[in-house]
Every structure is written in C-alpha cells, then in structure tokens.
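Minutes, project check-in

Agenda point 3 was the complex the collaborators sent over. CS summarized: four entities, 588 residues total, and the question is how they sit relative to each other. Sequences were read into the notes so everyone works from the same version.
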Amino acid sequence: MKVYNPDFKSRVEKYLQRQEFMKHIGFNLDVIEAGRTEGKLTLEKKHLQQKGYAHGGLVATLADITAGFAAYTLVPDDHNVVTGEIKVSYFQPGIGQELHVKGWVIKPGRKINFCEAEVWCTNHDRKTLIAKATASMVTIFPEDTKR
Amino acid sequence: MKVYNPDFKSRVEKYLQRQEFMKHIGFNLDVIEAGRTEGKLTLEKKHLQQKGYAHGGLVATLADITAGFAAYTLVPDDHNVVTGEIKVSYFQPGIGQELHVKGWVIKPGRKINFCEAEVWCTNHDRKTLIAKATASMVTIFPEDTKR
Amino acid sequence: MKVYNPDFKSRVEKYLQRQEFMKHIGFNLDVIEAGRTEGKLTLEKKHLQQKGYAHGGLVATLADITAGFAAYTLVPDDHNVVTGEIKVSYFQPGIGQELHVKGWVIKPGRKINFCEAEVWCTNHDRKTLIAKATASMVTIFPEDTKR
Amino acid sequence: MKVYNPDFKSRVEKYLQRQEFMKHIGFNLDVIEAGRTEGKLTLEKKHLQQKGYAHGGLVATLADITAGFAAYTLVPDDHNVVTGEIKVSYFQPGIGQELHVKGWVIKPGRKINFCEAEVWCTNHDRKTLIAKATASMVTIFPEDTKR
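CS then shared the predicted structure for the full assembly.
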C-alpha cells in the first residue's frame, strides 16, 4: 500500500501517548506497520460486563483503535483520520485472560480507508475469534479544518 | 411494547452494579423504561482521544449499553441479552462537557430486539447529535445456556 | 438543509431516466425534496424470494436509491454521490401488495451525507415498517474524477 | 463446519428455482458447498445506475443471495434462513463485463450464522474487489413459524 508519510510509526506513537481513553483502558499497540496495527490487552475485572465477559464496548473500542491507526499509517503527515462509521459483529462471548486485536486497511483510498479488525480472545491455551469489525476511516484534509 | 418481566427496572439496576466496564468509564443510566434507557456522562480527560475529542470507542460503548439495556427491559426474567452486532455512525466530533445517550428498541422481537441509540454532546449551551447507532440485540433463552 | 443546486429536482429526474436497474425493477420516485425522497413499488412475482416475500436485495436496493437521491438533492451541480456503505436491518418479512420507501439525509456534510431509509409494506389495510437502513453517501468532487 | 442436512445442495437448488427476483436479475449460483456459495453475473444495461456502473442495489442483492444460501447449507432441513441485517461497503465502482460473487459463513451458530460476501468485477483481463458485505443470517426454527 502506498505510504505518504515514511515516518508514520513515530506519528502513531506520538498519538498513542495522547490517547487518554486508550490508556484508561490499558491497551497499547505493539505492531505498527503500513496499513496494519496490532495490540494486546490483559483482561481485568474493570473490562467486564455484568456476566463476567469482556464488555462489547471494550471490544468495539479496541477494533476502532487498531483500524483507525492502520488508516493513519497511510495518510500524509498533515492529514488526519476520523471514524466515519464502524460495525462490530460479536461471534462469541469474550471469556479468558487476554485479547489480541488486529486492524488493517482492506481498501486504501484518498478520502476513505476501508478497514477491518479482528478481536481474538485467549482462554488458557485456546484462542478464539470473538468479534470482527468493518469501518470507514475518513481522511481529514488540511483544507477541511480551515472551514 | 410487551413487557414479560414487570420488575425489569430492578433487574437492570442489579446488572448495572455488576457492569465493571461501565463503572470504569463513569457512566450510569438515569432513565429505565420499557424499551428505552438513557444516561449522562461528564466528559473528563480520560475519555478523550489524541485530538481532545470524546473517543469513538467511548461513544460506541455508551450506545451499546443504552441499547442493550433497552432490550433487557423487554425480555423475561430468565432470558438474557447479548449484542449480536452494532453499527455506529459518527456525525460530528464530540467536543464539550457532557454526553447524553438514549437507547431504544425500534422493533421488538422474541429472538432479536432491533435497537437504536443516539449520542448527544452538550458544549456550553449547544447540544449536538454526534453519533447514531443501530444494533441487533439477541435474546439468550434458558435452553441456550444448557447446551 | 443547505441546498447548493436550486435545480436539484430536474437533476434527479434526469438521472432517474438513466437508472436502468431501477427501471428494470419498476421503481420510481414520487417525492423529491431537499434532503428527502420517497417512492412506491407495486409488488409483483418478479420481486419475490423463494418463500414469496419481497426479496431482501430488492428492499436494500430501494433503500439505497431513496437515500442516495436524498443526498443528491444537497450537492452542487458538478458534484456526484456514491454509496460508501449501507446497512439494512430487516424487521419483518415483506408480505403484501405495495412497498413505500422513504430516504432522507440525517446529517448533511460536505464529504459525506449520512442518510437513513425506511421501507414500509402495505398488506391490504395494514402498513408495517419492514426494514430500516443507514448509509454513508460520499460526495465526489469535480477534482476527484480528474485523478 | 457442521452440516445438519447432507442433502443441502438439492435444497438450495430447489429454492433457486423459486427465487423470482434472482431470476429477474439473471443471477445464478454455480458453487454450492457447505458454508459457501458462489455465482457469476454477466453485466448488461439493465444492471446499471445513471453513471453506467453496476448498481449498488444489485451488488447488495448478490451479496445477500450468496451469503444467505451459504447459511442455508448449514441448517437442518426443516429450518429456514432470513437476513437479519446486512452491511455492504463499496470499494470501487463496478465497471466491466462480469461480476463474480462469493458468500461464506465466517462463524456458524445455531441461531445466527454470521456471513461475509465479496463482489469482484472483471473488466477485460483485470479483476477487482468492488464490494464486501457482512451479514447476520437468522435461523428460523420450526416452532417459530407456529407462533
């Protein structure tokens, strides 16, 4: 995929430091490549819903973060990315110790990067795909913010 | 809408106390009616993304919670509800002091309650619709969990 | 809603004449207002799926057409509109004699018009909401097509 | 994937003969496997929208058909399948001579088969992924229809 900003990794890392909600959740990215990011989250009590499963909103948040930053890796340095829409399908309850989240650009584009994300849950020695997301990540051009 | 459990409000309130992720975020419901819930969130630094806007994952989480509990008000006491899928469209960046979230069942059903949710952001004296969600809330029957 | 092309109705009508797939289906618009269109379809055998209900693809097509042309009414004359994505939720099987479809822009925007659409089915004297759609209608600028 | 009806292919073929809307469009399935179907469509004038591209509603219809019948291959003979919801993302305009559509079950389940579909367009010697869909295909149990 075409990369406009060869220094995309530093840019994403800078933004991660300012991602207050992500830090509040305790998530971080450990893979930042062109058109692709990944991260892991150790499940704690604070992440759960009333039945003891990983909260659906948590799962949606992690999918949004990995997909959104995957789009960020492909845009020029003076452009930004916002989520236009995201759909998350929940295949299984998230029961286990760790979530592994992968986001990627499936169709790059100047105005919209179409992205997908997968959320896997590790329960002891078994890893299950618990959710999948599709999203339209909209590029914000420098001239958009001057309006 | 048909209510199978007249005591739905106590049930939802009991679940709210166990909603660890919701408590971690600082959200709560102040309206719990048949087929409808609402809640408010005071925006703090921990809720923001790198640009200082309310995080998209936060917005998705609040939409999921209000829509999911709206579905809960309509199911029998021994039934449960899980999110099958949710789509969130982001209309505006969430800039302001408070989010007001409304979730409701638009089409009740035995197996699926189709729901919608709106997220409004108050910035001083102006209230803006910043996101809207649609979701399929799937009913879990007692016999499902015995499998 | 802001209208850039006061002659939007003529433009939409011109496009309707070239909408071969819409004509093949037998649908037409009878309301074309700023940010809103509506149309009706008399259900015939050719519109049905294997159980005798209105085909889900037909329902999605009508939602896409009304929502897309609702967006068209708001863009400048030298701009175009394409569907970025659409989600359709099916509430009820479409059993009856006529479909009534309404599409509108819920949040106008320079680059994306967020739209919704409803599909109602009339069965003798009863009218039921059988499906609802949400869509991102993407504006194509003159400079986009020069690339 | 677990198959409850070993004779699923005959069942799907029987339904295809009754799919009036599919026949009206001119589409047919040429691959019917457990959890997967595929089909091709020769693009004609009747399939196009006002700009001469394959109509978005057509694309959504073909995605719905292949995903829905993929789900049908996995359910017992006395069960049925309806589309609960489908989201289609449009990556590219459909310009060419033929569409190739693939639908599959990504996560089988007793009540919901989560499905995906891809629509490819062949333009002379180049084949492009023009759209991707995700859908919740809901199983209708024999007892559901007795209500």
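Noted in discussion: Chain C has a mean pLDDT of 96.
Follow-up: revisit at the next meeting once the mutant set is ready.
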